[in-house]
Write a structure and sequence with these properties.
Chain lengths: 189, 283
């Protein structure tokens, strides 16, 4: 028995997308996501909502999640699974994520052909933690992330040198999300 | 859920909306870069806002309030039709008031009333490539964008100064976004260019025929190209609006008879009507 997806696929995915669009255009802001979803572990409601909103047959997904979660994703999103994270449009890690610079970066001429990393974290909070600046931020924003993989912030900050190539990141706490577009200037503390 | 039976919510099917949404997120992440997308056939011809309509259809939800303007006006055929279209297929409320709208789809103007955070401005774009008239090969313009090689455009502006004594672009004046990408502001008057700079609202651009989407996130630097000794100057007709008296708004010239009579009135109908109502209330 496969757990259900969105109760209303049209309006729930529209609402999740608007949260993503607002989060991507205001990096560091935290938005609720995934209300009403109960996907199989280790997927969380927010991870499931993002996958249901963005992934489909056109987007190879790389994940190391266990079989039940993969079955849920395959059934609801219909996405093919990529064997190699470098060939995936979306990367949804369960264990240690593949290094940022091993994912698709896009090219100088077509930077949009880069991967989007959907990264599970323990919690997200505004107002403290990483310092963010760049497009979408009036002066400075702070984002506190618990449970990010070690070295992630430094690796993300380093990819700014590759702009416009680079990976965009959607951080997913169990019931909320925040985005780190590649245009961001990020520094720890 | 409201809408027309037999049609998907907001007209487009879910797969198309997902494709558009992925495109929009990449566009926001790379400010000013034109992301190609699979534009669909829409129930109106190219040139009537198919790109803007597809962007609006991908983002709109039942709690949105939609305003549509064409050259600043809420009451032209194009604006009225698009507003009615989304009222039918997406069941949204519509408005003519800039301050009440959550999504404003526009052709060729930015409203005079400053936009606020949380609003989304959707531009209908006929030609997204700013280098189009200088370099017709799209493969070559992609290369120029990759190298951030915008000398061609500087030369064009320089030639304007040589020929006319000033930069002669009254509309569609090219801008640099976040110091990286040269971008066409869609043919808005140069008067509106400064409004794009660090605007609190999100700006999305859709070009249906050319199949490109691009974006400017809120609070992003948008600088009109110019020279130190020939700084960018937004142009405005040197008159006050004949209806509301505004001396700071963009004006349309309206012929009133066939013997040379003419008046200048605000191009932004909501701005003009709001000012007239305020003046009447004060009297």
């Amino acid at each position: 028995m496969i757990a259900p997806g969105f109760a209303d696929p049209t309006l729930d995915s529209q609402a999740t997308f608007r949260a993503l669009l607002a989060a991507m255009s205001h990096p560091g802001r935290v938005h609720p996501a995934g209300r009403g979803l109960s996907p199989p572990a280790p997927l969380t409601p927010a991870l499931a909502a993002v996958a249901l909103t963005l992934c489909d047959a056109d987007t190879p997904l790389w994940t190391d999640a266990p079989e039940e979660a993969r079955r849920w994703l395959a059934f609801h999103c219909g996405c093919p699974f990529a064997g190699d994270p470098a060939r995936a449009a979306f990367v949804l890690p369960h264990g240690a994520p593949p290094p940022l610079d091993s994912l698709a970066q896009g090219t100088e001429e077509e930077p949009h052909l880069s991967a989007t990393l959907i990264l599970p974290v323990a919690s997200l909070a505004e107002g403290a933690g990483w310092r963010l600046a760049g497009p979408g931020i009036a002066a400075e924003a702070r984002l506190s992330v618990a449970g990010a993989p070690p070295g992630f912030a430094a690796a993300f900050a380093a990819q700014r040198a590759r702009f416009p190539r680079g990976v965009d990141v959607i951080l997913c706490a169990p019931d909320r999300l925040a985005c780190l577009p590649r245009s961001l200037r990020l520094s720890e503390v | 859920m409201s809408g027309v039976p037999g049609f998907s919510y907001a007209y487009l099917d879910e797969g198309t909306k997902r494709m558009l949404r992925r495109t929009l997120l990449k566009a926001v992440a790379i400010p000013g870069y034109q992301v190609p997308f699979g534009a669909r056939e829409m129930p109106l011809p190219y040139g009537w806002g198919t790109g803007g309509i597809q962007v609006t259809a991908a983002i709109i939800g039942p709690s949105d309030v939609l305003k549509v303007i064409d050259q600043g006006s809420d009451d032209t055929t194009n604006a009225v039709s698009i507003r009615r279209f989304f009222r039918r297929v997406a069941g949204v409320a519509t408005t003519e008031r800039t301050t009440e709208a959550t999504i404003i789809q526009t052709r060729h103007r930015i409203p005079e009333t400053p936009l606020r955070e949380g609003q989304i401005l959707v531009y209908q774009v006929p030609m997204p490539e700013p280098l189009f008239r200088l370099e017709p090969r799209l493969a070559e313009t992609r290369r120029l964008h990759a190298l951030a090689d915008y000398g061609l455009m500087q030369v064009r502006l320089y030639e304007d100064i040589v020929r006319h004594g000033a930069i002669a672009t009254a509309y569609n004046h090219p801008v640099m976004v976040d110091g990286r990408y040269l971008m066409s502001p869609s043919p808005i008057p140069a008067f509106d260019n400064p409004k794009m700079h660090r605007m609190p609202a999100l700006q999305l651009f859709g070009a249906g025929r050319e199949k490109r989407i691009y974006a400017v996130p809120p609070y992003t630097d948008v600088v009109s190209l110019d020279f130190e000794d020939h700084p960018f100057r937004p142009i405005r007709a040197p008159h006050a609006c004949a209806l509301c008296g505004a001396a700071d708004s963009y004006l349309d010239e309206v012929l009133t008879d066939d013997s040379g009579g003419r008046i200048f009135v605000c191009s932004d109908t909501d701005y003009c009507a709001t000012r007239q109502a305020a003046r009447q209330a004060a009297e």
